[in-house]
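Memo to structure team: turn this sequence into structure tokens by end of day. - J.P.
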Amino acid sequence: MTKADNKRIGIIGAGPSGLAQLRAFEALEKAGVETPEIVCFEKQRHWGGMWNYTWRTGVGKYGEPIHGSMYKYLWSNGPKECLEFSDYSFDEHFGKPISSYPPRPVLFDYIQGRIKKSNAKNYIRFNTTVRWVEYLEDKNQFRVILDDLKENRTYEEIFDFLVVASGHFSTPNMPYFKGIENFPGAVMHAHDFRGADQFKGQDLLLIGSSYSAEDIGVQCYKHGANSITLSYRSNPIGVDWPEGIEELPLVTHFEDDTAFFKDGSSKKFDAVVMCTGYQHKFPFLPDQYRLKTKNNLYPNDIYKGIFFNDLPNLIYLGMQDQYYTFNMFDAQAWVARDYMMGKFELPPKEERTKDINTWLDKYAQVETANQEVDFQTDYIKDLLTLSDYPDFNTDKVANMFKEWLQDKEENILTYRDKIFTSVVTGTQAAEHHTDWMDELNDSKERYLMEPEEEELIPDPL
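Reply from structure team:
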């Protein structure tokens, strides 16, 4: 038999997790190992998942809900050294040291760099969305119903393994507050935020205390909003905010353009952005196979954070809340690959459940951000023992995360000016030619220029 015993693997999504799965199989092919037939379905017209920026909100060209929540002027909010691919360094891609906090176009270029060196594009069907998945118990296979959006054609495929790599930051949680229907200004979710430009000179209310509230708030402050108010439900972000940014308890209700807060205060606003998180949503899967969880570091019901416990041939990638990102997706994808290749055998369900519960019990003891970092670090260490993914110094990465958390507490406006050292190459990052608060141009060309070239590239703003 050929093509790894005629097995077929379907991958849903060509973002960082789906691309990691393709890259994992390519690593085997480069080693001379024959791999199964693989098909990856991506509903967008290009790879990259959340790292694709689009001006569109609501629905896309073919009427599908917009996947991406990416916006202009986004810079990495964590050190790039903490997400570096073990098998493809920033040095290899850019040919020189760059700073630790690149903007979105630069990180997207890095993601593409690794995958462009492969033949991954041959396995991806773009503009294709998964409508429904049926598990055929008698055949131990998945029947997948698909729509080719460009050709307006519906068809089906059969797979032995199904990898769900569709992400979980694209379906917004949109709460209701009494009176908000009469608010005269813009009301949106962070999913539809496309940049700070429209809020220049405005008083902006952000509801939420997540990373998106923090980042959107600081970005709008940087780009000229008059004031930023962040409203928290449980706990404030609690950093030392500059004048012009404040945190207040949760909104109780609205009266026209005025928001009222639990502490009895009130304030008029021009616009409201809900930074209230996202849902894990898999409408293409039957109820019994959907991962049902809130955003956390260890979702229940998936063994090793990867294999759906009731049906291990259904594989989920990247479903955790994330300190680690690209390198964690890689570690998961390598383990998933070895299982699909028959190199990694799963224990019986009873043992898998016990392992899941052990991790959940450990997670229940986590109370601080530093402990969260340690928890996810231990999780990745566990994954690295299960495959041949190139090892990296997770303890040093964990220390960088903790330093990053401290840097943000010390100064939320300048932490992106700090530099770190790669655990892959040992290279110390370069200082960026412009302080982050002064840099209003996030283009790759502007970012990568040498300091002496600064006057040669005009600032479009």
